[in-house]
Amino acid sequence: MDKPVLYIVIPCYNEQEVLPITAPMFLEKLRTLAEKGKISGQSRVLFVNDGSKDKTWQIICDLARQDEHYLGISQSRNRGHQNAVLAGLMEAKERCDITISIDCDGQDDINAMDEMVDAYLDGCEVVYGVRSSRETDTFFKRFTAQSFYKFLAAMGAEVVYNHADYRLISSRVLKEFANFKEVNLFLRGMVPLVGFKSTTVSYSRAERLAGESHYPLKKMIALAVDGITSLSVKPLRLIMGFGMVVAAISFIGCLWALITALCGKAVAGWASMTCIVCFVSGVQLICLGIIGEYIGKIYMETKARPRYIISERTWEK
């Protein structure tokens, strides 16, 4: 069996501070795996510049000139983390046997790649990197992150608990994954839908080596919304169920009002009426907001705009 060609796919957005630190680490891991005979010497580190506004792309180009094992592609504009990962995977799928996507910040343990490659050699087509603990996180970060995964699961989205975007995917799976044409991307939930034999590898996550996080609470919430609305219609069913409950309560309230009026015991009061009107109005607005989110997703999908546009490649310079 020929040694598999590995491409490490690394999305980068404004990473000029951390990239000079982590790039040699990724290259060293590539060489170590090759020396152990686990992967081919033709393996590469592929950086994906996601429309960075700093010197990230310049650094990537310099790295590519210094060593042939470094490759880089640049998107025409910032399109978000998920689109950047997808661009790298689609670019690599025809050039390699396996890919490992990992963030640039150095938080994910690169030594877990050894176990990922071993699992692939044992027959797994997808290997998910799963955090063994969140001891390095603040209480707020840990609580929101764990709630994020539990909420996604409760809403019907198929996700691997405590898994982000650190994963190994074979080119065979990527070729099938290319048939998924969604514009609204949530890779954590889409990859499990492809199927094939998979497993998990546990690792400890460290502090970011340099720079600032590009995933604040606002983006995490947006990602959760994208994940739920892209992969599940359960919120719509919950709306229908909740609407039926409210309708039943309202019907009982109408009967009660009619009976008290016929008995001559009705008492004029604005408080109860105001509460009912506000409650029903609030429910309607929430329901319309959720339905609107789905309609917005449909609107974007029907446009079928490109999910990424590659403007530059280091090997074409």
Explain how this protein is built.
This protein has about 325 residues and is of the alpha/beta class. The protein folds into 2 domains: about 5-230 and about 305-315, Spore Coat Polysaccharide Biosynthesis Protein SpsA, Chain A, CATH 3.90.550.10; about 235-305. It contains 10 helices and 8 strands. It has helices spanning about 20-35, 55-65, 80-90, 110-120, 140-155, 170-175, 185-195, 215-230, 235-260, 270-305; strands at about 5-10, 45-50, 70-75, 100, 125-130, 165-170, 200-205, 310-315. Strands 7-5-6-4-1-2-3-8 form an 8-stranded mixed β-sheet, with helices on both faces. β1, α1 (about 20-35) and β2 form a beta-alpha-beta unit. α5 runs parallel beside α8. It is elongated, with a radius of gyration of 25 Å. It starts with 5 loop residues before the first strand and ends with a strand. The mean pLDDT is about 80.
How many extended strands? Answer: 8
Strand fraction equals 5-15%
The outline comes out as: elongated
The succession of helices and strands, N to C, reads EHEHEHEHEHEHHEHHHE
Distance between the termini: 35 Å
Number of domains: 2
User: How much helix is in the residues?
Assistant: 40-55%
Secondary-structure-based class equals alpha/beta
Could you name the CATH class of the largest domain? Answer: Alpha Beta
Radius of gyration, whole Å: 25 Å
CATH architecture of the largest domain: Alpha-Beta Complex
Question: What is the strand arrangement across the widest sheet?
Answer: 7-5-6-4-1-2-3-8
Counted by DSSP, the helix tally is: 10
**What is the CATH T-level topology of the largest domain?**
Spore Coat Polysaccharide Biosynthesis Protein SpsA, Chain A
Low-confidence stretches: none
CATH homologous superfamily name of the largest domain? Spore Coat Polysaccharide Biosynthesis Protein SpsA, Chain A
- How is the biggest beta sheet arranged? 8 strands, mixed
**Overall mean confidence score, pLDDT:** 80
